[in-house]
Each structure stands twice: as structure tokens, then as C-alpha cells.
Amino acid sequence: MWEFCCVGNTWSAVAHIITGVIGAGVLSLAWSVAQLGWIAGPLFIIIFAIITIISAFLLSDSYRFPHPVHGITRNPSYMDAVKVFLGRSALSTMGNRLNGSSARPTLIVKRLCFALLLVQMGAQYETWAIRKSNCYHKEGHDAPCEYGISLYMVLFGFVEIFMSFIPNFHNMAWVSLVAAIMSFTYSFIGLGLGIAKVIENGRIMGSITGVPASNIADKLWLVFQALGDIAFAYPYSIILLEIQDTLKSPPPENQTMKKASVISVFVTTFFYLCCGCFGYAAFGNDTPGNLLTGFGFYEPYWLVDFANACIVVHLVGGYQIYSQPIYCGADKWCMRRFPNSVFMNKSFKVKLPLLPAFHFNLFRLCFRSVYVISTTILAILFPYFNQVLGVLGALNFWPLIVYFPVEMYFVQKQVQAWTTQWILFRAFSFFCFFISLVGLIGSLEGIVSEKLS
């Protein structure tokens, strides 16, 4: 079983994808469904699942150039594929159009943003959820149970320093397997608690139009934020080609990746629909932002504690999924830049008691440790960073998830302008651009409201 799961096949890819996609955000989707209502909420979850599948299919064909199966040039990262298919000018042109910089820093910044958010979430769930649950169990729900999280961010960062000694993506299958199991565990617990609450209520809460607002403008802001939350809960394009690079062939890597993507998105959508819909059915207009820490979910406290512990373990793996490409990119750059440096290239073998021998070099030790320490310090200094991440996610959703994959597909398949296929993909791209725009507006309004409240 271990060998089956840890080789570069469909199931190892599924584990990587689920680790990167199903985060603790699955527990906040009930809030999104509550803002959209019983029809639009589930519908948009399915729509974004379809968008993710289309994007994954287009991008997986970009792993080889010029042919998706027989091409001799491999693209082990997103930026490699863009450079090969569209040229270096496409990176700077698109980047300048979006952020005033090149697209390469955009990808690095997005991965850094995810790493920062995961540090915050790992500490938040370990303190604010587990300790608060225990406090309420002992003192009652009216007790002033508030705790600081800085110390736990430091502990989370220490664990990530240790995990960063994993050499590269090819050695991470076991991490993703454990993280995926954890995501299933806490998702099932959240689902079970939602079902139990519905049974306790004796009826299904909620309405077709969702949570009412005092005026149309306020309702639109909530709908925009909900669409943004759902849209950014799915995509994994920035790590897709790194995952595909771990796959063995035959069969062709793009076929395996497409199969893994379909399985992963189907599983993800099932959990998203179940947790989102049962959470809304349980709480209706009072649906909390997080099912596990919302009102009424502090009992049984031991089950909530276990679920939140599973979230922490999953976030440890998620941090590595988004950070490993940065580690590997730094390793490759330094090897090319300083090929004769002992500090950069010489490996040392270390054997600790009761543990297998492993290799490391001084550069990896220093760079990865400094990286983790930096993200931990930034997470402590900017405790409201998750609101800012919504803006960054909105800025990057359309270009990274849709624009580049579609443009690379046009080049690879030599799609002519104004053909039926060209028009359909342009319409698809425009729809996603619109979603990205409203998500950005909703995120900005959320930040302003947070600051003024």
C-alpha cells in the first residue's frame, strides 16, 4: 500500500492536489452558500469545479512542447511552460498589465502569500479553536476565552523548518498522503456535525435568496465576497505542473494528470457541497464563518479538538506544497549561478539514532530556514493578512488560472481567431475575468469594512 501511494502515479498526484486544494477553507463554504442561497450557492460550487477541470486539462497538456504527448521539451513549472509557449515577452507584458511587474514575482508572491496564511491558520486553529473549545467546555460559552497566537506561530514555524529538509516535490508523496487523510477526517467531522445539527433542529434552515441584508448594496458586497471565496477555494494551477513532473510514464503524463484532476475535483466538490449545504441547513442566517468554531459546535469538545488538530497537520503539509517550488527554484538558480561553490552544491550525509540517513547541504539549510523564519515573522506582524490575501488572490485568479492556460492551448493547437473554438474559450476567459473582478471588489470592501468596524 505504501509503495502504491508514494510512486509517481495517479494516486500520488491526487494526494498532492487534495493537499493543495482542500484547506481549512472547506469549513467556511457554508458561509458562502448562506450568502448566495439554496440555488446559487450549490450552483456556483459546481460551476467553479468545472472551471478548475477545464483549466487543469489545458495546463496539463502544456507539460510537453510542442506536442502534449510526444513533445521532447518538458516544462516542470508553470513559468517554464509560459516561456516555452508564449515567450519571455508574454511574462513581462502580462505582468505589467496586472501588477506593474513580471509574472514570475507574481507567482512567487502568491506562493509566499499562501505560506504566510498557512502559518497564521495553523496557529489560529491550534489556539483559538482548540484552547477556546476547552475553555468554553470548562467555563461556559459566556466566558472571556481569548488567547494570543504568536507563540504558536513560532512553534508552527519550527515544525516547518524541520519539514523543509524534504529535498523536493518528488519526495513529498507521504506528506501529501498524510495531509489528504487529515483533510478527509476534519471534513467528515464538519459534515457529521452539520447533519447532527439539522436533525436536532428538526428542519432545514435557509432560503433561496440567502442571508438578507439591509439594502441591495450590502447584499451585493456579501455575494461578491462569497463568489470570491468559492472561486479561490478550488484552483491549484500554480503547482499543477510541479505535480505532473513527479509522474512516471507510460501512460503519458498529461493523461495521468487529467485523471488525477478529475478524481481530485470530484472529491473536493463532494466535500464542498456537503459541508457548505449541511452547514447552511444547520444554521441558516446564523451560519458561522467556520463550522468547527461556530456557535453550538463546542460540544462534543473532544471531537472538535481532534478535528482542529487534523487541520493543523494538514496545514503543515499544505505549507510545504506551496513552498517546495520556491525551494527548488532557489536550488536550481544557485547551482547555475555558482556551479563550483561547495556551500551551494556539496551534500553531507547525516545519520541520527533511530532515523534513516539523509543528505543536506549548507545552502538548503540556511535558505529554507531563513524563508520559514521570515514567513513566520511576517505572519506575526500582519495578523490580518488573510483579508489582504483575498485581494492578491483576486488579482491572480484570472491570469494564472485561465488566461495563460488558454493562450498556451491556442498556440499548441494552432487555434485560429474567430473560429467556434476560439470564441468559446474567449467567452470562458471573459467570464472568469468578471468573477475575478467582482471577487476583487468584494475583498476590497471587506478590508475597508473590517478597518472601519
TrEMBL record:
Asked if ATP-binding is a keyword of the record, the answer is: no
Give me the segments passing through the membrane. 12-33, 39-59, 147-166, 172-199, 261-283, 365-385, 391-411, 423-444
Q: Does the keyword Iron apply?
A: no
A Pfam family cross-referenced in the UniProt record is Aa_trans
Which InterPro entries does UniProt cross-reference here? AA_transpt_TM
Subcellular location, record wording: Endomembrane system
Name a GO CC annotation attached to this entry. endomembrane system
Q: Which GO terms describe its biological process?
A: amino acid transport; auxin-activated signaling pathway
Name the principal localization, coarsely classed: membrane
Similarity annotation: Belongs to the amino acid/polyamine transporter 2 family. Amino acid/auxin permease (AAAP) (TC 2.A.18.1) subfamily.
As for what it does, the entry says: Carrier protein involved in proton-driven auxin influx. Mediates the formation of auxin gradient from developing leaves (site of auxin biosynthesis) to tips by contributing to the loading of auxin in vascular tissues and facilitating acropetal (base to tip) auxin transport within inner tissues of the root apex, and basipetal (tip to base) auxin transport within outer tissues of the root apex. May be involved in lateral roots and nodules formation.
Official protein name in the record: Putative amino acid permease 7 isoform X1
Source organism per entry reads Senna tora
